[in-house]
Amino acid sequence: MRIGELAARAGTSVKTIRYYDRIGVLRPERRSEAGYRLYDEDALDRYRFVRATQAIGLSLGEIREVLALRDRGETPCGFVIDLIGRRADELDARIAELVALRDELSELRQRAARLDPRDCDPKLVCHVIAPPS
What transmembrane ranges does the database entry give (predicted)? Predict the structure, then answer.
Protein backbone atom coordinates (compact mmCIF):
# COMPACT_ATOMS: atom_id res chain seq x y z
CA MET A 1 0.00 0.00 0.00
CA ARG A 2 1.14 3.54 -0.62
CA ILE A 3 1.81 6.01 2.14
CA GLY A 4 -1.57 7.74 1.83
CA GLU A 5 -3.44 4.48 2.28
CA LEU A 6 -1.30 3.55 5.29
CA ALA A 7 -1.94 6.95 6.84
CA ALA A 8 -5.68 6.67 6.24
CA ARG A 9 -5.86 3.15 7.68
CA ALA A 10 -3.76 4.20 10.68
CA GLY A 11 -5.87 7.29 11.27
CA THR A 12 -2.92 9.64 11.01
CA SER A 13 -1.35 12.00 8.51
CA VAL A 14 1.06 11.29 5.68
CA LYS A 15 3.40 13.75 7.38
CA THR A 16 3.49 11.57 10.51
CA ILE A 17 4.23 8.44 8.48
CA ARG A 18 7.03 10.25 6.65
CA TYR A 19 8.46 11.44 9.98
CA TYR A 20 8.37 7.92 11.43
CA ASP A 21 10.06 6.70 8.26
CA ARG A 22 12.75 9.39 8.55
CA ILE A 23 13.57 8.53 12.19
CA GLY A 24 13.57 4.81 11.51
CA VAL A 25 10.52 3.49 13.35
CA LEU A 26 8.59 2.76 10.13
CA ARG A 27 10.15 1.64 6.90
CA PRO A 28 8.59 1.11 3.53
CA GLU A 29 8.89 -2.46 2.34
CA ARG A 30 10.11 -1.11 -0.99
CA ARG A 31 9.68 1.74 -3.43
CA SER A 32 7.71 1.67 -6.62
CA GLU A 33 9.35 2.37 -9.96
CA ALA A 34 7.98 5.90 -9.63
CA GLY A 35 9.65 6.24 -6.22
CA TYR A 36 6.54 5.95 -4.07
CA ARG A 37 6.95 4.38 -0.65
CA LEU A 38 5.19 1.03 -0.56
CA TYR A 39 4.26 -0.53 2.79
CA ASP A 40 3.04 -4.01 3.64
CA GLU A 41 0.42 -4.94 6.25
CA ASP A 42 3.12 -5.23 8.93
CA ALA A 43 3.66 -1.47 8.72
CA LEU A 44 0.18 -0.86 10.12
CA ASP A 45 0.87 -3.20 13.06
CA ARG A 46 4.20 -1.50 13.63
CA TYR A 47 2.56 1.93 13.56
CA ARG A 48 0.00 0.75 16.13
CA PHE A 49 2.81 -0.57 18.32
CA VAL A 50 4.59 2.78 18.14
CA ARG A 51 1.42 4.64 19.15
CA ALA A 52 0.71 2.20 22.00
CA THR A 53 4.22 2.56 23.39
CA GLN A 54 4.04 6.34 23.12
CA ALA A 55 0.75 6.21 25.05
CA ILE A 56 2.53 4.60 28.01
CA GLY A 57 5.22 7.26 27.94
CA LEU A 58 8.08 5.72 26.00
CA SER A 59 10.10 8.08 23.85
CA LEU A 60 10.62 7.57 20.14
CA GLY A 61 14.29 6.84 20.88
CA GLU A 62 13.30 4.07 23.28
CA ILE A 63 10.76 2.75 20.81
CA ARG A 64 13.42 2.71 18.11
CA GLU A 65 15.61 0.57 20.40
CA VAL A 66 12.76 -1.88 21.03
CA LEU A 67 12.09 -2.14 17.30
CA ALA A 68 15.80 -2.61 16.56
CA LEU A 69 15.91 -5.57 18.94
CA ARG A 70 12.89 -7.12 17.21
CA ASP A 71 14.34 -6.39 13.77
CA ARG A 72 17.51 -8.28 14.78
CA GLY A 73 15.32 -11.26 15.68
CA GLU A 74 15.65 -10.72 19.43
CA THR A 75 12.69 -10.71 21.79
CA PRO A 76 12.57 -7.21 23.32
CA CYS A 77 10.27 -8.08 26.23
CA GLY A 78 12.97 -7.92 28.94
CA PHE A 79 14.13 -4.55 27.65
CA VAL A 80 10.52 -3.32 27.54
CA ILE A 81 9.92 -4.48 31.11
CA ASP A 82 12.98 -2.51 32.24
CA LEU A 83 11.75 0.57 30.37
CA ILE A 84 8.31 0.26 31.95
CA GLY A 85 9.88 -0.06 35.41
CA ARG A 86 12.02 3.02 34.87
CA ARG A 87 9.04 4.98 33.56
CA ALA A 88 6.97 3.94 36.61
CA ASP A 89 9.80 5.05 38.92
CA GLU A 90 10.02 8.39 37.09
CA LEU A 91 6.26 8.84 37.48
CA ASP A 92 6.46 8.07 41.20
CA ALA A 93 9.14 10.73 41.57
CA ARG A 94 7.14 13.23 39.54
CA ILE A 95 4.00 12.52 41.57
CA ALA A 96 5.97 13.15 44.78
CA GLU A 97 7.19 16.46 43.32
CA LEU A 98 3.65 17.44 42.37
CA VAL A 99 2.30 16.55 45.83
CA ALA A 100 5.04 18.69 47.41
CA LEU A 101 4.19 21.55 45.04
CA ARG A 102 0.49 21.24 45.86
CA ASP A 103 1.34 21.39 49.58
CA GLU A 104 3.49 24.49 49.02
CA LEU A 105 0.68 26.17 47.06
CA SER A 106 -1.76 25.34 49.84
CA GLU A 107 0.57 26.99 52.36
CA LEU A 108 0.88 30.06 50.12
CA ARG A 109 -2.89 30.25 49.80
CA GLN A 110 -3.26 30.13 53.58
CA ARG A 111 -0.53 32.75 53.98
CA ALA A 112 -2.22 34.99 51.41
CA ALA A 113 -5.47 34.83 53.40
CA ARG A 114 -3.63 36.28 56.42
CA LEU A 115 -1.77 39.07 54.59
CA ASP A 116 -3.02 42.56 53.94
CA PRO A 117 -2.17 43.85 50.45
CA ARG A 118 -1.66 47.34 51.91
CA ASP A 119 1.35 45.97 53.86
CA CYS A 120 3.07 44.67 50.73
CA ASP A 121 6.62 46.00 50.29
CA PRO A 122 6.95 47.25 46.67
CA LYS A 123 10.48 45.80 46.54
CA LEU A 124 9.03 42.28 46.95
CA VAL A 125 6.59 42.72 44.06
CA CYS A 126 4.10 40.53 45.95
CA HIS A 127 4.49 39.54 49.57
CA VAL A 128 2.48 36.35 49.02
CA ILE A 129 5.44 35.00 47.05
CA ALA A 130 8.31 36.53 48.95
CA PRO A 131 11.78 35.19 48.14
CA PRO A 132 13.55 33.52 51.06
CA SER A 133 15.54 35.99 53.13
Answer: none
